[in-house]
Amino acid sequence: MNDKATNKLEVWRKLTDSSTVMVGELAQNKQGVYFQYHTEYLQKHHNLSPFNLSFDNSLQLAPNQPHNALHGAFSDSLPDGWGLMLMDRIFRQANILPNQISAMDRLAFVGDRAMGALFYKPVSSLQETEQAENFSIAELGTKAQAIFDGQTSQVLQALVNAGSSGGARPKAQLYLNQVNPDQCSITAKPDHEAYLVKFTSQQLSLGHEEGLCEAAYLSMALKAGIDVPQWQLLDAPNKRGSTSNKDNKWLALKRFDTTITANGTEGRLHLHSTSGLLDADYRMPSLDYEDLIKASSILCKSPAAGQAMFRRMIFNLFALNQDDHSKNWAFLQGDDGQWQLAPFYDVTFSPSAYDEHATAFAGFGKKPTLKALQKLATQANFSSWKQAQLVIVETVEAIQSFNVISQQLNVKQDTRQLISKQLGRIYQDNKILLQG
Question: Angle 303-319/385-399 helices, nearest 10 degrees?
Answer without folding.
Answer: 40
